[in-house]
Write a structure and sequence with these properties.
2 copies of one chain form a homodimer. By secondary structure, the first copy, chain A, is an alpha/beta fold. Chain A has helices spanning about 10-20, 85-95, 105-120, 150-165, 170-180, 230-245, 265-280, 310-320; strands at about 25-30, 35, 45-55, 70-75, 100-105, 125-130, 185-190, 210-215, 225, 250-260, 285-290, 300-310, 320, 325-330. Chain A folds into 2 domains: about 10-185, 3-Layer(aba) Sandwich (Rossmann fold), CATH 3.40.50; about 185-315, Dihydroxyacetone kinase, domain 2 (Hypothetical Protein Tm841, Chain: A,domain 3). In chain A, the strands form 3 sheets. Chain A has a 6-stranded mixed beta sheet, sandwiched between helices. In chain A, helix 4 (about 150-165) crosses helix 8 and helix 6 crosses helix 7 (about 265-280). Chain A is globular. The mean pLDDT of chain A is about 95. Chains A, B: It holds the Pfam family Dak1. Chains A, B: One of its GO terms (molecular function) is glycerone kinase activity. Chains A, B: Its EC number is 2.7.1.121.
Chain lengths: ~325, ~325
């Protein structure tokens, strides 16, 4: 057990206390497990609420702030938050313009956000929902019916967040979010398993010298296991897997995402190979983001997410954002 | 070997190519190993140049940009850059207002920056130097005579960078940098060793269930090895070690820094404990930064850096910065 924790039972509460003291521009309700923009509700703006199991930081709490999420609901590690958290978040951030729930496609999250939507609507809050399901690696897996939601979640939260920030109405913000998801695809690889605090040891067995192609963000099995490959070979495999399912005719937004324990030095080197493959495939790149954004605790590995952009989506991507995990433009 | 690389020999060049394509606002000279602000030299501004071995990303290349460094010189992994890189960087960014070299206290870096300063002065560039030596864990170690330079490097680069950005003269920027270093102290712990690409396996042996207190950023030995401690116990040890050597009478700037492979979830939880200890010791906190900023490849662990602030230093810390690794305020 090589974890910087007190005991497994308090990991999420401890992290929320630490977020609260580091980020005075957030309201962190440790007891009720809700992270809010301090200035919420913002008059005239649609509010964005997301959430999911903890262990993927900075997703989602690190993306709460002007230009992105209004609130996030962290569950226990790799466990869906409960409807109460989502209803509480929605009530706290709704200005009357309605709330968009951004839901990664995992069975627990989908059920709980559905239930929360009903409860919130009973309280008179207008709710729209968008499901993120960008991972091309597998259909159906340990936690999911259909495709898993992974790296594109960041794109949906950022771009729909920019639309909300400039006052677009709920149906338009929802349409933008849906469009971003439809235009996005991801593929991830693991070079090591991750260890949850509760288990204290790797969640699956990945022998040294092998890698798992098509891994999920909870260590769910991927497509296949192979002997270790070079960064260039992995980029070929991952980018081609994405492009089997996405045929972009306009420049893409690229996320080269670390799973948590892969050093930035390696991620940048991997990005060079991703860009090489994209060039070879004739795909031009409008923007690239490299870093640990949608993680799996201490897993080593990386994922590639591409989104086919247009002028309007690019404008919204470039719009100012001010969160703990993503910040630019003001 | 669980690395996302091609071969050890090209790790730094690959990473620089990846940085170049992700950050069009940087000029990355892959062949000569220099990373520059695209708008350098900036008329009327002192330029800041730093550098050191690779493997500590985002330090230093990720801190090049408006409000922070003008240029960075990455060496091979855990190996000092050479004087040629530093002279080339200084010549590229000097506007005539002079250049400040920011040097972490490691024998190779100190020698090479000294030589580079002489060579640059021969070319008519005015050079000042500041040595960063904030690590209270040990005096003298594997790579260092005196104290090692670690987390405070980020503070020096950010705060002196803000002074340069507003047009302060070289002697003033140097004085600010020196002041920040003198007011800063750090202490780090490792929960695992790191693996360099060249070696392909851990650089030292740290049995599971033990931790190394007072680790350096290259895995140099610390003060002592102990059976695993809780996050709270580690915070007690680290903060008290810092406060043995720093007795702040005004609010501090705190960096709770990950060594590379420690998840953000754990770092925030550790921050909660660091803040608890500071409170118990009567130290008030002006600003807190939590994240992986001064890393040691894939090492698990964390460090705490405190800097005793005053109004002017706080104003410079809060000033806008726009780099790949640190960005706020515009």
């Amino acid at each position: 057990m090589r974890m910087l924790i007190n005991v497994a039972e308090t990991v999420v509460a401890d992290a929320l206390r630490g977020m609260a003291s580091a980020h005075p521009d957030l309201v962190v309700d440790v007891e009720n497990r809700v992270i809010l923009r301090r200035d919420a509700p913002v008059a005239g703006q649609v509010a964005l609420v997301s959430g999911g199991g903890s262990g993927h930081e900075p997703l989602h709490g690190g993306f709460v702030g002007p230009g992105m999420l209004s609130a996030a609901c962290p569950g226990e590690v790799f466990t869906s938050p409960v409807p109460d958290q989502m209803v509480r978040a929605a009530a706290a951030v709704d200005s009357g313009a309605g709330v968009l729930f951004i839901v990664k496609n995992y069975t627990g999250d989908v059920l709980n956000f559905d239930m929360a939507a009903e409860l919130a609507e009973d309280e008179g809050i207008q709710i729209a929902k968008v499901l993120v399901n960008d991972d091309v690696a597998v259909t159906d897996s340990l936690y999911t019916a259909g495709r898993r939601g992974t790296g594109a979640t960041l794109f949906v939260e950022k771009i729909a967040g920019a639309a909300a920030e400039e006052g677009q109405p709920l149906e338009r913000v929802e349409a933008v979010a849906r469009q971003v998801n439809e235009r996005s695809r991801s593929f991830g690889v693991a070079l090591s398993a991750c260890s949850t605090p509760a288990k204290g040891s790797p969640t699956f067995d990945l022998p040294s010298g092998e890698l798992e192609l098509g891994i999920g963000i909870h260590g769910e099995p991927g497509r296949e296991r192979r002997p270790m490959m070079t960064s260039g070979e992995i980029a070929d495999f991952a980018v081609n897997a994405v492009l089997e399912d996405l045929n972009p005719s306009s420049p893409v937004l690229a996320l080269v995402n670390g799973m948590g324990a892969t050093p930035l030095l390696e991620l940048y080197g991997f990005n060079a190979e991703v860009q090489r493959v994209l060039g070879e495939r004739g795909v031009s790149v409008a923007r690239t983001l490299v870093g640990n954004y949608v993680t799996s605790l201490d897993m080593a590995g990386a994922s590639v997410t591409l989104c086919e952009m247009d002028e309007e989506l690019l404008r919204l991507w470039d719009a100012p954002v001010s969160t703990a995990g993503l910040r630019w433009g003001r």
